[in-house]
Write a structure and sequence with these properties.
Layout: H1 2-5, H2 7-15, E1 19-26, E2 29-36, H3 39-53, E3 60-66, E4 73-76, H4 83-91, H5 97-103, E5 119-122
Parallel strand pairs: 2-3
Antiparallel strand pairs: 1-2, 4-5
Helix pairs in contact: 2-3, 4-5
Length: 126
Amino acid sequence: MVKAKYKSVLDLGEKLNIQDGDVKVTGNVLEIRGTAASPYHKDLLWDEIKKVGGDDPSDVVANIKVMDDSIYAKHTVASDESLSLIAKHYFKDPMKYKQIFAANTDVLKNPDIIHTGQELVIPNLK
């Protein structure tokens, strides 16, 4: 029953290609373990857990590690995107585009010019 409740979390884990994943049910508690590619992917999983179980769910225990925590995420630029739109997506603040630009000066020369297909580093802002 608890596994069915958190199906969307398990599906997201598959979609994000969580490595070394392990899911088991002990009593009425779902135990989830695995390694996410980035802190962003880990945050997505926790957001989904909270969406299903509330801010402090008692029926799930998750131990999600991160492969690479030197950056927040990697982002491949899609058509019609801007740095401010990307910043709004990851940080909910379009003005954080400056930090994204600063982290990518090896591939970007102007914050107003990005190209579809470019892979950008999304920096940790903590």
